[in-house]
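Risk register update: the risk that structure generation would not scale has been downgraded. Supporting records follow, first protein first.
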Amino acid sequence: MLALMGGSLLVTLTIAGTIAFYSHLARQYDLSKLGEMPERTVVLDAQGEMLGRMHGENRIVVPLSQVSPFFVKALLAREDSRFYDHGGIDYVGVARATVRNIKDRRVVQGASTITMQLARNSYPDLNDRSFHRKMLEMMLARRIEGYWTKDQILEHYVNRIFFGTNLYGIQRASQVYFGKHASQLNLSEAALIAGIIRSPVRFSPFRNFDGALKERDDVLKRMVATKVITTEEELAARYADIALHAQPAFQSQGGYALDAVRRDLDRVLEDHEIEDGGLIVYTTLSQELQTLAEQSVEKRLAVVEKLPGYKHPTKAAFDATWDGTQEVASTPYLQGAVTILDNATGGILALVGGRDYRQSKYNRATQGQRQIGSTVKPFVYATAIASGFLPGTFIDDAPIQPGEIEGAGAGWSPQNSDGKFTGQQTLTYGLVQSRNTMTIRVGNYAGLDRVLNLLGDAGIGSSAERTPQIFIGNLGGTPRDLTSAFSIFPNDGIRRRPFLIDKVTDKAGNILYSTSLLEADVVSPGVAHLMRRILGQVMDRGTAASVRSEHKFKEPAGGKTGTTNDYKDAWFAGYTDRVTCAVWVGLDKPQTIVDQGYGSRLAIPIWADVVKKAVELGYIPAGPRVEPPLAAVQLCHLSSQLATPACAASGTAYDEKLPYDLIPQGNCGAHQGVIAAPQYEDQPRGRSPGLLNRIRGWFR
């Protein structure tokens, strides 16, 4: 008897010690974090509309109140019918499972409650199959029941359920299998999803539809047995049609714009802050404008593909042969890219990197370094104006002579696009009509280094080779960079850093990152004013006149077309007082697009569509632009200095209004017997003397 009592006491002490030990271990887990589940990061546009999701587990957390009652009943009937009666451990279920397993001489029935499963699914170290894990799981379940309410436990569980590869929680399961919100599941659908929980890969209705139906029917029978539905309801659900609406486990990533957001997010946050997802990313994008820009690129380029003489594969032909899965390194069909930003902040409103993100992930708006052609010319002319030239200064539109241009090869003599030369013309004419020979001379007078410095300050040409060919566009740039650079003209000479991400918060609203507005002075307000005056004329009567005449764009604006040799790249970059936009059109492997494939013909239609939509959406200035104070002066076409009576007598004087900081400080000396700029002994032979030396020469 004493031995029996001693043995019983030993067993009791052992059990008590085991319980105490595992209870102590269970207390080391932080139960407050049980509801913190990795889910995908949400990306919002500037109006708070969802653009897409990225990173983290493929889960959308929903409250229990937004889950179909049918699913809750089906889940409890299948997994834990006594859930609301036990305290985390179902001793009745344990006894029943033990009897069944002894009877069958194998483990055919478990006794894990939903609370125990939640504990196991919430903490990675509880995933092994061992006595130690089971005991810890049971003690942890008891703690969970004391910390959370039953409905809270159930809510955590339905959001943690694993439904197969990259699929977590009832909301995403409902969306992927049936294309509906979890609250909309009917009895048959709810029972099917509940039935596949124990083996979601094996019984996925996409892989094993018959097996999924068999599991559904088993769940329905259990629901009848537990009296949560009637026999009539079970029969109707069993014979109900199941309409699967297959959706990708990972929804569309939002194309090129969301891809750019993802890349920027990787730069502003640490990996450990990103990988678990669950963040809210507030972007500067406008979903309406983004959609319109994507549609315009597709529509306008499809029209180009139908032009007489267009010889490349069309996108429609490529689509007909594409298998729907294989991404290509470079597409054979015509591509386009767009960036539009808000001048006031630098925030990017829309970004299109190509025609089809599924076929090519290459983002031409942010990665496509292509020759920018004549869109570089405004920066050459801005440098010249900052160096003392003025809109009425005469520049010779004549063939480039050997040795005339510093750093040019002996045989370099570019032509104008029309093959003509028009003689002495004003600086304004040279930019409005995009005259190559005049632009080269303007750049040479201003100085290559000065031009390169201004381009660098504007955000383009950082890796450009030091060659005068830069004056007419022999340097690379992306639509995003060019858009930012052009924004200096409506911004009174200031460049604001372009950005996509306004701020990032966690789900609790804590700010993890916020963008600061960064800006730098590139040119003076006076120079920007004169450039706006000239670039406005490019739209009114120059190479971009179709913006007004054909596309009926009426807002105050300016811009510049660009076309590279043999029509391989077509550009248009332009602005209003509120937005700046650049458009590129070309083939991934540079080739002639089509004969006469100018930027005015191929890129302007897209620009007009996008910017008109921006105006429609309210991206317009709050009031009239405040221009810098102007003074009326009389100048000389030859010297860019204040005109004298001799200038008037020779017919070179003209009236102008200038910002005060650009008014010349000296009087013209060009008509004191010195008309042409002389060569000086300290000046290399064949080198143009530059404006300041020319002025000094007139006074000698």
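Supporting record for the second protein:
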Amino acid sequence: MHRNSNNKKIQVWLPLLFALVMVLGMTLGYLLRGNGSQTRGILMLPGKRSPLQEVVDLVNAKYVDPITDTLNGDMAQAMLAKLDPHSVYIPAVDLSEINEDLQGNFQGIGVEFQIFNDTVNVINVLQGGPSEKAGLQVGDKFVKVGDSVVAGNKITNARIRNLLRGPGASKVLVTMMRNGKLQQFTINRGLIPIPSIDASYKLDSSTGYIRINKFSETTYEEFMASLEKLQKQKISQLVLDLRGNGGGILTEAVDIADEFLDGNKLIVYTQGDKMPRQEYRCKRDGIFEKGKLVVLVDENSASASEVLTGALQDWDRATIIGRRTFGKGLVQEQYDLSDGAALRLTVARYYTPSGRSIQKPYTHDGNGDYGNDLLKRYQHGELVNADSNKVQNGKAYQTKGGRTVYGGGGIMPDVFVPFDTSMISASVNKVLNRTTVSNFVYQYYVQNKNELTAYHSGVEFAQKFDKEEDMWNAFANFASKDSLSVNSISAKDKDFLKDHLKALLGRQIWRNEGLYEILNADDEMIKKALEAVKK
């Protein structure tokens, strides 16, 4: 009986033990490329074989079935989930797209497309990009890419994307339908930027606004260009919008903080059990060290966003407005593996200048509660009630000016703005979960293009467009043909959806800049920000 009990224990622990050694072994000998969560390194393992390594050798030598790459990946991910919520195994098939987002560019043709009725429609053409140079226009429909027919054959986003992307300077022949006629275009693929700045414009005569959606390899460069443009327009205050920004490359956020802080102030430091303390300090004179600054955050602002926000709050440099941030204060290094996959392994924690940890609590049992944290915050009233949002995590710290702040659970704002619950009503979700909205916006734009493009910006459109009710009636009629009724929804939900349609129409014309110029016109956090910079 004792022997059978031991065998059962081995069967239970074997996958986890095998995964642990497999992950450690695969990291041996791969290059380190330094840069925040993008770093890659050489991991030197001890020469003596551990019991875990012996287990792996025995499994490889004796196990009844082949150990596949998929099984290896599954076991690696299962093991990493027991460590922390952010260590992750990335299969080779997913790595390229994930890295592109942080690199800030990819090789392609420079169009946005959407599939309507099994047809790939061009909904935006990148200004100055390969497709614009070749002559493609909004409203064109893809019929063929090369010799591959892509119309009317259950085309998918993934398939059309794979057909259109390719090496830089390579050519792709496309056949398009325009105004009922077939036309062919030869497009020279090129480098397509993935902007990390969504919008940069003036909220009023003296207040600039910049929204950053992530921290990629190009973010600091984009930020400087945006801020310098605004300074030429004589701004004296700035609103920096980090809502929904899930982070990215640490050094990009550090460089931006340096533009707001003077001297050699500490911005952030990292430290782990096997990683000595590493400090990131100001290195240069910043271009916005004076002037009022407001930072907007919410429950989806994470990682590098929290580093930037925490530094500005600890030095009393900015007023933080919004809701408590996500609480992701773990540092990952990325290691390339031999099969083209990668391992992002947590190696340290972020600490703000005052010494507070950004990371919220988690367990080592699969992190189920961690993943449901935002839902729990909503259910407990934290997203809508200022009093509930004053939960104090960890011990107290002091800002430079003597204000009390707390660590261990994200960054708490100085000014609380509740979550708009109309965004998650059942009626609104029923509409937004369908493709009906995006289909309607595109077709409404095509049908009214001359009238809509007469506006010069999203700001002007937000102020002067007065056909919201006509647009809503057109949408209600369009939705009914798609088996979606919107006639019985509440007045509040109707107003929300009308604003949403108008904003998406702005994005159709002016991309993300137009989207946020329209959304911000009636945004509560923007209103609070303008009040703060005027005090």
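The longest helix spans residues 491-519. On this basis the risk owner (M.S.) recommends closing the item.
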